[in-house]
Amino acid sequence: MCQSPKPPKSPLNPEPDFTLVADLTAAIRGQGPNPALLSLVGQAFYRNGGYLGTEAGLKRLFDHSLIFLLRLIFTAALIAKREPLKAALNSKGLNAPPNLGALASLMALKDLTRDLPGLKGVYKGRARLIQLGNNLEGADSQGDPILEGSLNSLDFCSNSFGADFLDDWELVALWTGLFQGQEGQDRDWAAFNPASLGRLYEGLMDLEFQFSSPCDQKGQGIEPKLRLSQAPANRKIGGGYYTPLSLAKPLTAQGLELLLARLGQGRSILTLKILDASCGGGRLLLAALDELSSLALRRVKANQEKDLQNLLDHDSRLLTEKRRLWNLDPDLEPIRATIMKRRLLSTCFYGVDLAKVAVAVAKMTLALATDVIGGPALFLDERLKQGDSLLGADLKSWPKFKSENQGDGAGLGARLKATDLKLFHWPVEFPEVFSGSETQGPGGFDLIVANPPWEKTKFEEPLFFAQYQANYRSLSPSQKKEVAQKLLAEPKVAAKYVKAKDRAILVNSLLKDQYPQSGGAGDGNLFRFFVERSLNLLAPGGILSLIAPTGLLTEAGSTLLRRWILTEYKLLTFNGFENRLKVFPAVHGRYKFGLFQIEKPQGSSQGSLKGSLTKAAPPKTRCRFGLKDPNELANDDQVFDYSLKDVVATSPKNWAFLELLGGAVDLAIAKKLYARFPTFNLNWLDFRGELHATADKAIFAEQNEPGYLPLYKGQMIWRYDPKVAKAKAYLDPLVFDAHLKAARVSQLVRDLTKLPLNAARGEKGIKEEKATDLAEILAFLKLKQKSDLGQFVKPERLFPRLAFRAVASDANERTLVASLLPKNVGAQNSLWTSIPGRYVLDRENGTVKYQVAPLERLLFALALFNSLTVDWLLRASMAMNVNKIYLVRLPLPQPTDSELQNKPDYRDLIHRAALLSLYRAPELRADLGRLGVMDQKELIKDEYGFKVNQAWLDVKIASLYGLSVSEFDQIIYSFNVFRNKNKSYIDYISEQANLVL
Asked: Global pTM?
């Protein structure tokens, strides 16, 4: 049985207090009595000129306005850090050396609301704002160089403030909203954590500017008014989610510990190159900087970093002299860690993001975190850059890119010339990282920390139209069509639609071409491309420390990438989470993600697949699954080794990890089950979704008429029971059959073209090398066109079918839920239904027959699907939805029809499954009667009899798989919800297991 985990230790990495962030977010968005500060600044910038009323112009205007506000907040936080200098400033006067004019202007602006008259059309305060920007740019060399590089002004340059930028009324409203709370009290800027800027930015990503009246550009007799609008699609397209400290700290700490353990003899921390290629507001860079500075101080104290010690001493001497000059305490011990951070930040750290605002926020975040009064200047422009991390060349692809894009070639550069995509060529942007040297080793980053976007790359129409109508997703198909047609009738919207769609198609094509390991089933996903790009950017011995969906280890779409990682790299650790506690508030509570640590080995690769699997000690991953609270990371009781051999043994085709909550015990059971039977083959029994809830909705009737058929959904079935809920939609059988006829004709063609015309399905000795084409079939049947084959189509509703629920979860009471469906029903795509048979040629009569799978096969599969053993395996293979992709991964007995009829154990399973089905659905009697289950003495009479037979099947199937009592107990006790709701059944089944197993 499963052991209860030990209680977690004291809370790990508590998140900073973001109360101030919430208050500022409300003020900027206008959630309160006062106008939105973002609109106020945007209107002033627009009035100042230079922003055309186009989509690109509005985007630029929004970015500038938001950066302006965030820089004012950043400035306020700097003021709070310099409060100890007030006394020195007052005693010396503004002009006394050292020149602290910038500091003086910062502090003076706090009193802006008191000094300015607050009248519209008066611009007295504008001069003070410009003076602030000028002073921030030009602090005396003996003074306090507060801001450098792109951080040196409140806009991008202070002289861009026009004559009518922010009159006194607007300036007072802005300053009041930023610097005072709703109660009129000054905000507590001392409590402003550097990470707060990133959190604040994340809370504003779903906004954009729109005009309240149509306007091509400023002028033409119209004075447009900006409107701050909700744009949820922006957040989803950007895919940015603030990484909480509870994950950022352990992720970066583990990556650095692994890296330093592999640091070569004599190599200094100063030589390390650390990157976040989707840095957002700089949260992970900040966490990595905190961790590295702590580790560096430890190494300095242990006399392991002489060069770093010398630099630290140099910086400390300069600061000591300045502090004495300013009559401040010369003791640097309290800020020694910050001095170290400044040195490491300017030497070791790099960041890239596609969003201009994100890069600005990252710069401010890191500057605030490393701010020291009088410290050496920070120049971050060459280390934190804007660009598309995925589109552009890395070191390996740079020579090819250059050769393809010289002159007027048709390479990537030429294809993107007319787009707004921002190529980022890594060897060009960061040449010092990729040059390599004797002391630093081959080029590349030593540590990459990442929480990349988790979004799909395909164009999604619902996201596009939701920008204009918030409830678009909840509309009916006809309403959606009407809204889309109305919107696309507007030329500007239509142009934007075409541009967005073309851009998505182009980007998808480029990404799939550039990232061969990230192709595969399903839609492209940004996180896969980021993983492949990051691994290509690592130096030998480097570590990728990553937060990404668990699907990287489990889903079919990641198979190629997963195989590449497991053979060419070393997946060192994985800590899997389910988002039940909303660690990421904007992500679904059942979504699964994890913390990965991947190493690029010294040398080009680990070796071939064969070599990796035949090693005496194959690569192993330190794993655990099912974490919910980041505090559980402090408890390593659940960690177990999952080797590459284990992966192949439990997923020979997909190389997918099983989510084994019981650790090593569960892994041993899973390996035993997979060794018992082959994985499920769809040639034995295939499934499909019949009718789509949206695409086929036109044939659904809400009212039941005589002769109509019920439309089944997943929620209508339970184990052995096809009618736990009533149908809410119905089908006219004639319309239903006609609607599916073309699809069934295509199935008929697929079935017949699998064999040569002279071969009967199932005959021995027939080579199936040459497929029959459609023309041969039509000629053989003396027909003219494909549609003529419709005369042979058999509606599948005429046969009982096995169905299982599509919508399920590995945390539900049960995950694999199956039942027999009676004849004459339709099925929506929340159910997967078995395909009753296959079409074969009747050679003697020159016709086509429908060869129906025997009911014994359906009942045998029904018993397997509803068993605890098979359900347990499926739960370890999937997350939120069941489909046949996961079904084909399961090891299942698949007897021949002869074995089903003649093997006693199999006959017993079939017989009991029929009895259970008849008890719940007597309407199946006509079909099941021929199987010999009509004897009234055998029929189940009550719930007790139902549970006895169900328990017998559960135990018998466990016996088929060769499980022991303890192994079966381990499986039983993993079904927490089911166990709590069915205690008497669990007790009974445990007793039976002790007798049988």
From this structure: 0.87
